[in-house]
Structure formats: C-alpha cells, structure tokens
Amino acid sequence: MAKSASARSSLGYLKPYKPILVSGVVSLLLTNLCALGIPYYLSRAVQALNDHRLAEVPRESLLLIVFALATAITRIGSRVWIFNAARAAEYDVRSDLFGHLLTLSPGYFRDHSTGDVMSRLTNDVQTVRAMWGAGLVHLANATTSFATVLTYMILIDWKVALLVILPYPLIFLVGQALSKRIYISQRDVQAELGSLSGRIQEDLGAIHVIKTYGLEDVRRKGFLEGSKRLLDKNMAAAKVRIQLGPTLNTLAPLAIALLILFGGRAVIGKDMGVGDFTAFTTLLAQLVWPTLTLGFMLALVQRGRASWTRLVELEETKTDLPEGAGPALPTSVQPARVDVKHLTVAIGGRKLLDDVTFEIPPGTVTAIVGRTGAGKSTLVEAMTRLIAVPEETVFIDGRDVTSVPLASLRAQIGYAPQEAFLFSTTIADNIAMGFGAGTAIPAARAKELEAVGALERAVDLSSDERVIEAAKAAGLERDLAAMPDGLATIVGERGITLSGGQRQRVALARALAAQPRLLVLDDSLSSVDAETEKLILGHLRGVLHGRTAVLISHRVAAIKDADQILVIDQGQIVERGTHAELIGKSGVYSELYKTQLETDMQIVREAV
Predict the structure, then answer these.
(1) For the whole prediction, is pTM greater than 0.70?
(2) Rounded Cα–Cα distance for residues 521 and 528 (Å)
(3) Taking 50 as the threshold, does the pLDDT of residue 403 lie above it?
C-alpha cells in the first residue's frame, strides 16, 4: 500500500502479476473451450447410436476422453497461476501494511488496540487474498463458461438457447441484492473480530496481573461476552450467505425444465436431433457450477470489500511525525548540542509542556527531575521526536529536528525508555539492536531454525566486543555470570524471564551499544537496588565522559553529579542549576531531596 492508487483499489496489487493472471485466465478460456468437446463428441456418439452407426461410437468416445483430460489439465494450470499470483499479492499487501505501521508514531499505538491492528494484518489480508484468488477464478470461469457455452448453444438452436437461459438474469439480480447485505454483515463481523483480538492480546499480555488478583472469572466473563457478540454477528452474516446457495439451486433447474419443454418439442418436431438435445443437456449442466459459484463469488467479493475497506483505513492513517525534508545530520563522533526554545506540547487537549526553554551544551550531562506526571518523559520524547513538536522549537547541532530525516536523527540518539521492552531472543541480540544488529531468530534456536530453513541467517553476537562492553557498562556482569548461557541466554516474550531490574539494564546496554552522540536515559535505574545503582553509575561516569547525556531519575543520588539539573513541574521548568545551587534554595528540588533523605533514614531505622 505504498502508493495511493493502491489504496483506492485492491486491483493495484495485482498489476505486477498481470502476465501470470493473464496466463491463468487464458488457461481458463482453454478449459472451457476444451469442455465444449465433451458435449460435442457426446452428441455425435449418441446420434451415432440413434442412427445405428456403431462403428463410429468408439472414436467419438475416445475423443470425448481426450477433451475431458485436456479440460482437467488446463483447469489445474489456471488455478495454480491465479492462486499463486493472489498469494504473491497478499505478501505485498502485508509487507506494505507492516512497513506503514512502522512509520506511525507511538501515539497511534496508544490510541488503537494492538489486537485490532493484528486482525487487519492477518484475517483481513487473508480475506482479500481469497477475493483475489478464488474470486477471480470463479469470475473468469463463469464469464468464459457462459461465453463459450452460450455461443455453442446458439449455433445449435438459437431459439431454444434464448429460452433456456431466461432464469439466469433473474439469478444475477437476486445474487446482487443478497451480496449488498453480505457486505454490511461481514464488515460488522471483521470489526467485532478486531475488538475480540484486542481483548485476547491484552489478557495474555497481562496474565500475571490476572493471576495475582484472581481476575480469571471476571476476564473470562468479558471474553465470553465479546465472543458471544462475534458469534451473533457471524450467525447474522451466515444467514445472509446461506440464502445464496438454495436460491441459486432453486432457480438453476428452471433452465432444465425449459429445455425439456421447448427442446423436447423440437426433437419431436424433428427440428432438433437426439444428439443435439443431449449436447444441450450437457451444456446446461456445465453452466450449473458457474451459476452456483456465482453466489459464492459474490459473497467472497463482498467479504473482501469489507476487509479491504478496513485495510485502506489503516493505510490512509497518516503519521503525525512527517519525514524531515532537509539533509541528514553529518556523521560525527563529537557530542551533540541540544537547544529547546519555547516548546509547548498538547495531547488530547491537555497541555503537557508549556513554553519550555533550555540548552544542553555538547559533552555535558543534564538531569531532569520532577514529581510524577510533571512532564519529564514527554520532554525527552519531544527531544527525540517520538511525539510531534512544533517547528523551530527543538534543535540538535543548530538544526530544527522537524527538518532532519527521522533515520538520521535516530542514528544520533541512544534512548532507554522507562518501560524496558525486550524481544524474545538472546540478551546479546537485544543489546546489539542498539547498533542495528541482532535478529529475532538467534543461533541458540538451531532446531527451530532448521525446521524453517533459516539457520544461515542466525548470528551469534554473544562474543561481539560492543555487546560485551555495553553489558558491562550497564552492570550486567554479575547477572550474566549466574546464567548458564550468559549473553546467549534467550529471554521470554517481552523479557518475562528476567527481573524488572535486569530488563532495564539490558535496555540500558542497548542504548549504550549504539555509542550515540546524545544519550537519553528515562529513569532507567528505577527498578534496580541502591548497590546496583551505585555500580552502574560508576560505569556510566566513564561512558558519559565527553558525551552529551540527558538523565531522568526520581532518585537525587543518581543525578546529583550532573552538570545542570532541570526541575520540571506541571509542564514548566521551575528551577535550574547544579545540585549544590538547588539544594540551598527553598524549592521543588530541595523538597524532593529532603523527602528522599527522610525516607532513606526511615528505612535504615526500621532495618536496625
């Protein structure tokens, strides 16, 4: 869906496979032409029997078998070509959609259910593929069947031919009427399926919370209610779909009845031979399947249209982080300079940052502190352009970040968010992703990889020097020593097999491995104990030397050595200075410091 034309019509994805599709359609045309040989030689054999020309029967029967085999071979070929093209187009759609999702800002995923997005990339894409594959096969087959069969019937007896096809326009009109209802009902089904998928994804992701608070019955009840709604919508859609088959089965035999009525009179009146009457019967039989599949095809197309509408909605969602139109930032090992000028950020009508201005000189460490909800994380997300910011408000090396290509900007920044996310791969892979390496299929999973033929793509990064140094700087040495596989240890989904502190340190190591010009740590030590924090800070002093860094922490001990400290409250910077300067003032920082001292002393007294 990289092109807008493709967003308007699903057929745009079939264009690259036009030669294959044309071959499939031509093969279907050959199929129906070969199929005409069956009634032709059948009529000749029957007529020969009727005229007592028995010597001609074996030859006509042999030719009938030859044409039947040719029909089977060309039909198989047509399906292979068309279905393969549909599969290839499905791959293109899913790839483009996933690529588009990666361009959307984190804000989109905060506002939209992951389960619904997954449903679109799986169920909806598969439904569209079925519309392309089976739908095109049945459409081409029905078109070529009616064209060839009707032509042959008219050549035999045009009057009888026109009479026996009278039910077919009625069949088409009934099918069209029902197909509109199918589209509406299927659209409701897909929407409800997306909602249920979102609920399942949420419950599985929070299974530890459900177990901890005994919410199994509550969540199961909610799931059953959603499943019941999906069942009801599926049943409503099925009631509409199943009307097609019986309706067409009822109308199709009318053609046979008309043939018996008018064709029988022609045979009696010697205007039509017995062989031609037999051919007419066989030809009408050849139209029964295309007629029956007409209803299936219409249902398939309407289901595909409903799913395509949902895919287009996703594709037409524009990111609120447009690509910078200016040149890329030059590659440099020098620390970055950051300037923020009169930055105001509002999300959902709520002002999170209000006229924030400060500067971070190259090679310095800036700490940002404040109470919960003050706007600290919003500020660093704005600096790294993970959220939309106004033009001429955030600058790196004097360049407006909104003019810098996103890939170039992100390459300069190492960011460790407060909520550490790990991929289900090795610790080494998770760290190496900081410098663009790593894989979701580590070498430690050799058996799984052999099964899918992907072993050659797996790389063991546990001995990479950058990974080892980053792990050491993040204070992981002691933890890795206790793990049998060390850096090659595979973590569970979202890193669930590691503790909260271990996950944070792996995410910290990932940011350090990038060797960025600007390092941003958003409360990356909040889940570690005081001893580990002291160890990590000792390593970080060496890592941060000569590097621009921004540290967010709720612990004063972690940021007291910063070159400057920014105190943010209710979206505004209310204080700035060094630890020594701020501690002597009667302000927010001083209050935070005193509160932490009292809390630490209370813990010590209780321990004693």
Answers:
(1) yes
(2) 14
(3) yes
What amino acid is encoded at 580 in this protein?
A
Tell me if 400 sits within 8 A of 383, measured CB to CB: no
What is the rounded distance in angstroms from the CA atom of residue 425 to the CA atom of residue 464? 16
Give the span between the Cα atoms of 596 and 608, in whole angstroms: 18
How far apart CA 579 and CA 587 sit, in angstroms, is 12
Helices 167-205/244-251 angle, 10° precision: 160
* Gap between the Cα atoms of 215 and 202, Å rounded: 13
Residues 6+ apart with CB under 8 A from 302: 179, 180, 182, 183, 186
Which residues have C-beta within 8 Å of that of residue 425, sequence separation ≥ 6? 438, 439, 440, 441, 442, 490, 491
Three-class secondary structure of residue 413 per DSSP = strand
* C-alpha–C-alpha distance, residues 204 and 220, integer Å: 12
The Cα–Cα gap between 306 and 286 comes to 31
pLDDT digits 0-9 by tens, 20-33: 999 999 998 999 89
In the predicted model, is pLDDT for residue 442 greater than 60?
A: no
Confidence of residue 176 (pLDDT cuts 50, 70, 90): low
Token pair for 365 = 């460490």
Nearest-CA neighbor of 505 among 420, 403, 408?
Answer: 420
Longest dimension (CA), the chain: 122
Amino acid at 410: R
Q: What is the pLDDT of residues 532-555, one digit of tens each?
A: 667 777 777 777 777 788 988 777
- Is residue 550 within 8 Å of residue 519, measured between CB atoms? yes
Q: What are the distances in angstroms from CA 467 to CA 19, 184, 366?
A: 49, 53, 26
Question: Which residues have C-beta within 8 Å of that of residue 604, sequence separation ≥ 6?
Answer: none
Q: Which residue has the tokens 């793990």?
A: 483
Nearest of 359, 275, 263, 312 to residue 128 by alpha carbon: 312
The three-state (H, E, C) secondary structure of 255-279, written as one string: HHHHHHHHHHHHHHCCCCCHHHHHH
CB atoms within 10 A of CB 258: 17
Q: For 386, phi and psi rounded to 5 degrees?
A: -90, -10
Read off the pLDDT of residues 509-524 as tens digits, 9 standing for 90 and up.
Answer: 888 888 888 888 887 7
